[in-house]
Amino acid sequence: MTTTFHRHWRDVSESTWRWPNFSPAETACRGTGKLLINESALDKLQALRDRLGKPLIVRSAYRSPEHNRAVGGAPRSKHLDGAAFDIDMANHDPVAFEAAAREVGFLGFGFYPRSGFIHVDLGPARQWGERFPVRATAFAAETPLAREVLAESRSMKGGGAAGVATLGAAGVEVAQNVLAETQTAILPLVPYLDTLRWVFIAVALGGIAVTIYARLDDWKRGRRGSPGCSPGSPSAHGCEPRYATAPSPSLCSSSCSRFGGPASERDASPNALRPRRMSMMSNARCWKQQLAVLILATIWLSGCATGASDLGGLGTCPPVVEYSQEFQARAAEQLTLLPEGSAIEEMLSDYAVMREQARVCGASP
Cβ(287)–Cβ(252) under 8 Å? Predict the structure, then answer.
């Protein structure tokens, strides 16, 4: 048995160290930094590493006499000779580890299931401690990272449709401006182009609605989780919702707090995961209400802003739609969900001015 002592593991020359998967620091004394190189023991440790094909987490290797006394080690511990290693079982099946260690030549085994490691040494042959309980499955199968196929993404489809339709509407807008300058020859085509532009606008709004619905639906189903959670994979295999913590207060938290409850009640619950998911679903409901207001306001402004100005004054005045008191009350209730100083409020104030202008236009001869 060849041994070499170093007062500190930093004194070991790289040219003399021949165990590629281990370092002098790993096998040195944890308390003093001293190192006793036991070549036979390190050869078997490297052979065990090669056989298992996995890293070995060395908790303890060589111990100096003073450190061995400090940790309560046995007076004749094999650690004093650099011939023993305590290996963590965090990434190993204890049964397979023991079998591989015996095959490479380790003779002494100590089992510490509560501490999670196995002691191996060069002998004599003996063993102590209670073996680790047998695992039904050594380790769970590694789940590959979920990769979304762009061609199957609802968000990409909706966003793409909205983008193409927006470009189409802009193209029609440019064409209308050009044709308006040559109105004497192509004036009959202008109404058809106006209809085509509204078709593009409708497609764009539909694409935006599909995109937003897909996002909300994914959030409700918890499909935007950690890597490795593919759509449809059961939550029992480690796929948790994205919101592991309670979401931050949203703009509509006051109106929808009855679904999720106050944050203090959610944090105090012994089963915090379920209330947090309920809160996430309630936020989705609130955003659906705000989405309705946003789409409604966009349609109003688009219709009023382009109805009379696109043709350079050649078209007729846009009609002024009259809304019932009940409809106006519903709109006012939905507008209360918006934050103070919202851009939608400013857009609707512009819309009121446009309606008044449309009335004046319709009243003029």
Answer: yes
Q: Tens of pLDDT along 145-188? A: 555 565 567 777 777 788 888 888 888 888 777 766 666 666 67
Is residue 182 a part of any domain in this protein? yes
Does 239 reside within a domain? no
CATH number at residue 70: 3.30.1380.10
Task: Write out pLDDT tens, residues 75-132.
Answer: 999 999 999 999 999 999 999 999 999 999 999 999 999 999 999 999 999 999 999 9
Compute the CA torsion angle 312, 313, 315, 320 (nearest 10 deg): 120
**291 part of a folded domain:** no
Contact call for residues 173 and 307 (beta carbons, < 8 A): no
Identify the domain containing residue 193 by its residue range: 156-215
Which token pair is 6?
């170093």
Q: What angle do CA 91, 95, 98 make, to 5 degrees?
A: 90
